[in-house]
Amino acid sequence: MSTTTPHGTPHTLRTVTGPLAVEAVQGPVLSHEHLVLDLDKKGDRAAVLEAGTHGAAVTAELAALREEFGLSVVIELTCRGMGRDAGALRRISREANVAVVAATGWYYEPFHPHDLDGAGVEQLTETLVREIDGGIGATGITPGVLGEVGSHGDTPSEPETRALRAAARAAVTTGLSVSTHAQLGHGGPAQLALLTGEGLPPHRIAIGHQDLLDDPAVHRDLAAAGAYVAFDTVGKESYQSDDVRLRLLLALIEAGHADRALLSCDISRHGYLATEGGQGYGHLLRSFLPKVRAAGVDEDLIDLMTRRNPLRFLTGASVEEI
């Protein structure tokens, strides 16, 4: 039976190669990754994934995960000011045979490009809607999500507030969802209040990097409000141990909120690639999920967190629909 929206049209994802029906997605979805980006601010080129230099390794990793685990979709959250390259995403997607959802929006303030300078919320909203409707640059590729729209600290700065409000308004206008960057896990409640204050329903919002915040009460509150809680830096042991991540995830599940958990690795520099000795995009599937299973989580909940939840987040579908 076809999954439908309230208007009766099938739920589809906007991918870099065209529309994809959710029914076609039978394998896991990585809910927060980067395949091409440039966050270098120091000149050491560590915080980059360059299409020309690293694209082949990225493609090979995704193709291997497709073969081994059935990886179906990557939600790629490199947005404006982060070195986004939609054309490269399309090439990687085609060669790896893994669907990729591209993003738009603005990251947190240290990486804001000049197009935010002095621009009001309405102007920023128009910029995003124009890109969502018309495509990224000359590629014609339309974003399928807003993110990772960022802030740092417990409350967003003034420019971050404008960017978040614009993302929410653009999401309401276009029917897309918003994924956030909460620096080191902080500021999620303030982000949620800002986004919902613009009329965006909480189930169209994913609050990012919550596995970096050792505060199960915040996670419960976000989930109880209806937002998705992203445990999306799995494997980044220099920020947080996977043992702590597992404890936090199990607490969220035990509180009855497995239907609000999103999981991913947030590969954001070339040193994280498997070919360079890093954990790679497969760390969630190869290393972390076996620990989740060993803790007693069954396969239905694994599928919920790694496939159905991200599909529901992207489309706004209910638990009953997907």
From TrEMBL:
<feature type="binding site">
    <location>
        <position position="32"/>
    </location>
    <ligand>
        <name>a divalent metal cation 1</name>
    </ligand>
</feature>
<feature type="binding site">
    <location>
        <position position="209"/>
    </location>
    <ligand>
        <name>a divalent metal cation 2</name>
    </ligand>
</feature>
<protein>
    <submittedName>
        <fullName>Phosphotriesterase</fullName>
    </submittedName>
</protein>
<keyword id="KW-0378">Hydrolase</keyword>
<dbReference type="GO" id="GO:0016787">
    <property type="term" value="F:hydrolase activity"/>
</dbReference>
<feature type="binding site">
    <location>
        <position position="181"/>
    </location>
    <ligand>
        <name>a divalent metal cation 2</name>
    </ligand>
</feature>
<dbReference type="GO" id="GO:0008270">
    <property type="term" value="F:zinc ion binding"/>
</dbReference>
<feature type="binding site">
    <location>
        <position position="34"/>
    </location>
    <ligand>
        <name>a divalent metal cation 1</name>
    </ligand>
</feature>
<keyword id="KW-0479">Metal-binding</keyword>
<feature type="binding site">
    <location>
        <position position="148"/>
    </location>
    <ligand>
        <name>a divalent metal cation 2</name>
    </ligand>
</feature>
<dbReference type="InterPro" id="IPR032466">
    <property type="entry name" value="Metal_Hydrolase"/>
</dbReference>
<feature type="binding site">
    <location>
        <position position="148"/>
    </location>
    <ligand>
        <name>a divalent metal cation 1</name>
    </ligand>
</feature>
<dbReference type="InterPro" id="IPR001559">
    <property type="entry name" value="Phosphotriesterase"/>
</dbReference>
<feature type="binding site">
    <location>
        <position position="266"/>
    </location>
    <ligand>
        <name>a divalent metal cation 1</name>
    </ligand>
</feature>
<dbReference type="Pfam" id="PF02126">
    <property type="entry name" value="PTE"/>
</dbReference>
<comment type="similarity">
    <text>Belongs to the metallo-dependent hydrolases superfamily. Phosphotriesterase family.</text>
</comment>
